[in-house]
Amino acid sequence: MFLFNKPAGYASILCLHFILSGITASCQSGALPLEQNLYHRAKVDPQTVFQHSQISVTHIDTATVLIRIGDFTILTDPVFDKPGNYYHHGFGAISKKTDRPAVEADAIGKVDLVLLSHEQHKDNLDITGRQIASKATLILTTLDGAAELPNARGLKPWQSHQIQLPDNRVLTITATPARHHPAWIPEFVSGPAIGFVLQLDNEEYALYITGDTVYFDGIDQVAARFKIGLALVHVGSAEVFYLTGPAQFTMDAAGYIQAIESLNPALAIPIHNNGWSHFDENNQSLLEKLGLHPQILEKTLIPRRGVVLKFGPGE
């Protein structure tokens, strides 16, 4: 395949304490200079993100993100296999896992909720990730995916599921539309996928996870329905060149720019552009293309994998 992937780099959980224009970002131990923990630092309006809640976000690998809201733990699209093996994703699509997760599987601990964009592709749910997901209290995913997993509920786009958190707040998770294929390829080739909006009952702004998708009008529909404070955007311009040429199955830089223009979040973190040989873009190439779009660049935060960022009021 005529593809490249410059991995985002391996980082253990680090300790970082700094202020991003009024939003606290921190991690758990030892301190390193800011530039060693981030690929790119964003400018953020502190009045637009999680004014009453502290939410931690750790990008582990690909689209695997650990999200903690108080004592409630969420894991997205878990992939934890070691690098080096080739995986078949269906319809002849094969790619190699190239990165090690920044946090090992046995360090994750108890998972209350897994948010799974889709079950059918190994870069969203690999062998070890499936084992972790099977032990979670609940998995929210597509209807097709739920049929293949224990403790799973399938959601159609715009269906919601509510969870009462340990502190008695209510978290509403709404499935959002995703199109994990170019317009000219039918959905059955890649299979269905969804994203998620997470809304706390005491917050005006929501956290949006796009899931594996290209930019399309479904993202505009999310923008029309929700005020997005933080967006985790699946990018990477996933391609299987030997099967479909330069067809994109996730957003490239241009799609990311369109999505951020539509969503207008306070802050966006691009993910899903490391760890596999089928990604055609990475953090470096994304930032190069964002250089001509300063209004998007200032909303974009790219942490190194394994760094725990905390958004919201300080402790």
Q: Main beta sheet, described?
A: 7 strands, mixed
N-to-C SSE string, H for helix and E for strand = EEHEEEEEEEHEHEEEHEEHEHHEHHEE
Number of domains: 1
With strands numbered from the N-terminus, the spatial order across the biggest sheet is: 11-10-9-6-5-4-19
Reported by name, the CATH topology is: Metallo-beta-lactamase, Chain A
Runs with pLDDT <50, length 5+? Answer: 1-35
Question: What's the CATH first level?
Answer: Alpha Beta
Instruction: Assign the CATH superfamily.
Output: Ribonuclease Z/Hydroxyacylglutathione hydrolase-like
Secondary structure class reads alpha/beta
Structure description:
The protein has helices spanning 34-37, 127-134, 143-146, 187-190, 217-225, 241-244, 253-263, 283-290, 294-297, and strands at 17-20, 23-26, 38-40, 55-61, 64-69, 72-76, 86-90, 93-96, 113-115, 138-141, 152-154, 160-164, 170-177, 194-200, 206-209, 228-234, 267-271, 302-303, 308-311. By secondary structure, the chain is an alpha/beta fold. The chain has a single domain, classed as Ribonuclease Z/Hydroxyacylglutathione hydrolase-like (Metallo-beta-lactamase, Chain A), CATH 3.60.15.10. The strands form five sheets. Strands 11-10-9-6-5-4-19 form a seven-stranded mixed β-sheet. The chain is globular, with a radius of gyration of 18 Å. The protein starts with 16 loop residues before the first strand and ends with a strand.
